Every structure is written in structure tokens, then in C-alpha cells.
Amino acid sequence: AVAAKMAALGGGGTGWLRAWLPALQLLRRGSKAVTRHWKAMHFQRQKLLAVTEYLPPRPAAPPRCLPRPATSGHEEDGYARVLRRQVEETLRSSRMVAVCQYNSMPDEDVVTLRHYLRKHNIHVKFVLNEVVRPVLAQSKYRNLLPLFVCRNILLVSPETRAREMLRVLKGVPQVNLLGACIDDTILSRQGVENFAQLPSLEVSQGQTVAALSLLPSQTSSLLQRGPTHLTALLDEHIRRLRGTGGATEPPPG
Description:
The protein is of the alpha+beta class.
């Protein structure tokens, strides 16, 4: 049937042989067949790859994270030396040195605080920790170093005006008292409050003198009590004898 059809198309003869097509043609359509499947890698190969894996070198630390090299013969900053000398002179001429924590406050309040403290001969000193810490480490105030951990100010006075200082700081919550050194004695905040309740030096000296003179006065009065009582009894006896006329006045000799 295929040959007849081809003959009819070709017009007879042998032309159909040249145009002959196979009766059955296989045409593959769609996707290709999958011939390779995933297979787990052998554990020895995994070990080999893990051992021979490339590890890039760690990046070097930036220079700002490295410690600064110790430079010998570095000249000290002149401004820092002047500030350190000023702190030394302030500590040397002050009997009361109070360390306070300073929080930010308006400039008008700072001026008012200085004014009220200056009325009691108390001066406000703004200092830098990097300047004051080396000075304190070489002085008798070295035990105050733990207080300088933030922004601090110093309240200094040539007199012990702890009571007036606490009265002024009570109205300034931005300034907190941490500790003080009064007459070469380091005190905490509670110690400063207890010191402020003590009487003045003149009153304490008067009380001490009164207490010391009380015992000698009592001893003297006890020693004079016997002779005084005997003298009084003799005078009374002589007066009675003169009243009754039983005795005459003894001769002057």
C-alpha cells in the first residue's frame, strides 16, 4: 500500500525507489534520559579534601588596635605640666579636698554654684583624670584614686568648711559628693556628714579644757574642805566663849 501510494505520487517508473522512506521511523521527543545520579562522596575523599582545603591567612590587626610602642626620651607636653603643677599647688594649700561627680548642667547654674561656695571660701576646680591621677599617685591623697573614674570636680578650701559645703550641695543634685580628705584624713560621704555635725575647733578646745580642769578643781576643793571646816568650828567656839565671858583674849605675844 505504501509502494502504491508512492508510485501514484511519483508518476510511475523507478522514481518511487529514490523517494522511498522506511515504513517505521523512531523519533525521540521530550527530555533526555538521566544516566548519572547523585552519589555520596567516599569518606576517604572527604577527609582528603578537608585536609587539603586552602585556609587563607588571617588579616593583620589594624595599627590602632596595637599597643603604642614605648618611646624613650619623649618630651612631656608643656600644657599638661603646667596643669599638673597647678593641681599640686592646690592640694598643698588646702585643708579640705572634696571629690565630687559632676553631671552636665547649664552654665548659669555653674556660676551660681561657684558664687555660693566662694562665699564660704570654697573653690571649684575642674580637673582632667589624666592630669590629676599622676599627681595623686605620688602624694598623700593616693587613696582617693578609685574615685576618679568619670568626670569629676574638686571642691577645695584652706579651711574645714564641710557643713557649709554640704548645705550648698544639697540644692545641686547634678554634683554628688564621693569622698573627701580633711586635715590629712580620708573620709567617705557618710564620714563627711558626721564630721559636719561636730562642733567647731574652738568649742571642742573649750570643752576639753573644761573637762581637764574639772578634776583638779574637785581635788582642790576636797583638800581645802577639812581645814576650812576646822577653821569655821574654831571661830564659832571662840565666839561662844567671848559671849559667855569665860575666856579672855589671849595676849599678842
